Amino acid sequence: MGECFQTLNLTNAYLFAAALQDEEICRNVLEIALNKRISRVKAHVEQVLFLDSEFKSVRFDVYASDEEEVSYDVEMQNDDTKNLPKRCRYYQAELDVTSLRPGEDYQQLKPGYIIFICSFDPFGKGRCQYVFEEYCKEADIPLGDETQKIFFNTNGTDTENVTPELLHLFEYLKQSTEEVAVRHQDEKILKIHERVKYLKRDRKLEAGYMTMEEYIHQEAERRAKLMAESMAESMAESMAESMAKSMAESMAESMAASRVAQNILALLEDLGTLPDQTKERIAKEQNEDVLSAWLKLAARADSIEEFQSKM
After folding, report:
1. Of the candidates 208, 246, 219, 269, which has an alpha carbon nearest to the alpha carbon of residue 282?
2. What's this model's pTM, rounded to 2 decimal places?
3. pLDDT score, position 69
4. From the centroid of its chain, how far is CA 120?
5. Cα separations (Å) of 99 from 34, 74, 109, 132, 134?
6. pLDDT at site 240
7. Domain total for the chain?
8. Please, what's the largest Cα pairwise distance for the chain?
9. Residue-wise burial string across 8-18, b where 16 or more C-beta atoms lie within 10 A, e elsewhere
10. Residue 30 domain boundaries
11. Mean pLDDT throughout 238-266?
């Protein structure tokens, strides 16, 4: 089961994207990350449920542009999918296609930054940031295409080479609490924290997170079911095919029901202490329709008593 919404840190891609939909917060994060003044940005979030072939990630891209016509693509990355360099190439192409109108000269292409904030070291050198530009190998001449690919490692060790404000942002991303927010009295970090607190009070946003988590787990269960059925088919020579498929379906349904029940309990934890009898009833329920109804009820309820009275 995914994390409880109320305990999420800003390294969570869903919460990060929601926070940066606020253009002031987006500007603050970009200013800290790039260590430069940005007067104003326009931001929008491309929330794409991007499931790769091995079911590793969900993509939440934050696209922004400033008054100087610079484009930014920012993404929080927690899983080392080993494909970030090629994804940078693809994302830069997306930015370029959208910034150049038909008939315009190539000189009209906006400068662009592709930014990954990683909770791991993408290149294994221990650095807090890796900045890539296009250069000539032989003469060390910059290509001048005005693009940068930047990878931040929130666990980097070369702290003397980055700004204190960036290190504070790294701290806050990993532990998005009041204590960390006020530690250095950085105005930008305090504004980001206020936004995070506001978002965590939004029950619709919380329900959206739980729905996304449920979908991801259901998709995982679906794939597990397909795998189990495939195994069952290969066992058909030594076992009755109908028995094998029945076992696979039963296992998959049980796992799916358990996952939804855990999501319901996670939502209800925010409302107070749930009686053991109610917990047991939720945990034992196997009917998908009943569990789905309870999940929606838990997302809307304002108290444990309200949930119990309506379940």
Report:
1. 269
2. 0.69
3. 82
4. 14
5. 21, 16, 6, 21, 20
6. 55
7. 2
8. 75
9. bbbbbbbbbbb
10. 5-200
11. 67
